Amino acid sequence: MSAPEETGRGAATEQPPGAPGHRVSRFWLLTGSSAASELGTTFLHLAMPVTILAGTGSSVLAALSLGVQYLPFVLSPALGSLIDGFERRRVFLVSELAQGVLVALIPLLLMAERVELVFAMLLLTSCANVVSNLTSDFGLLPTLVPPDRVTWAYSKFAATTEAARCLGPALAGLVLATLGTNWALWIDAATFLLTALVALALPKRPQPPVERGFLRMQVEGFRSFRRLPGIPRLTLSLSMHNLGAGAVPIVMVLLVQGTWGWSSKWTGLVIAAGAAGSAAGAWVADRVWVDRTPEQRIGRWFVLCAASCALLLLPWQPVVIAAFICLMAAEGGMNVTTNEFRFRAIPDEVAGRTNAVMRAFILGALALSSFLLGWSVALPEQVYRFAPALLASALAAVLWTGVRRSAGSASAAGVSGPT
């Protein structure tokens, strides 16, 4: 979730004060192209399971077509070293081009019925996606706005891309029904090529001075991760939350369509409402609790997540849906706030490696969550179905609140805590 600025937010204006016009336009150029790319990715996520299930009749292979797209996040530390070893804009450009080419090849492999090669393309595409996300989120985006407006940038970027994810499934279904799988995938490929063109308009940044040895870079990434104040505890808290609540959107599909017996149309609307909630949470992240420290704001998002998970245990369907939307909104706001925290806390020369280590733990926990909630959602009583989500989310809130209290105690004793 997948981070601090307490003053000067100026939420009433959309342009960061003091920022040159071309600088702001580049921010919106990157944001718009990234949203288009996210919209295209929903085409891939919907088209692949449907197509593989229709072609092979295997639900296992259909599920693996999605699972394989999350596997490369475990390799984030190694891929983060690649980011820190080269100029960021170039890495972003190459990763977007690679995704476009690889996705464009998938329809040809489907025509040849080479499912094993399709999985290989998906795996390689996901590796490039990890590199692209790490580079844009933590390397490029914060440099396109003034330092005092990083929260504003993360908020607008997250809300815009979440809105694209909300719109994507409906458009993907329409394209699949009218044009077919091949055109859906080629449209996705085109969005990556569009983002690659946008990368050419972004300013070059000086390459950070880093050691070139691969093993040395890995070791330094883990050392930086352990040394930076607040980063290990933030990773632990986010991983704990994801362990229980990370797979809630997936489980909601099983609950709404399988247990409740609702149609696919209504199931899609429920998931879309959750995505809209996430976008709303990201959009208001720089407007709420502006007088609080970053640590306090993160803690409040954790508490809201835990409260939403508690409501998921109730037996009434409207309440469960409302709780799901609230949980997605809280996670959207948390993503913005924690991303900013990470940008402030992690030095630029090790940003790629350190964020990659964090992402490996956080998204690895999300993968485990699918197994945990996949088991609990089949239980007969609603109170048990989301119990793992509540327990893990509440523990995450306790873990993070301990950071704030420790910092407050250190300050009271005349010792400077992490800021």
Automatic annotation (TrEMBL):
Residues 1-20 are annotated as: Disordered. Gene3D superfamilies: MFS general substrate transporter like domains (1.20.1250.20). It is found in: Cell membrane. Its main location: membrane. The chain crosses the membrane at residues 91-110, 183-202, 243-260, 266-286, 298-314, 357-377, 383-403. GO terms for molecular function: transmembrane transporter activity. This is MFS transporter.
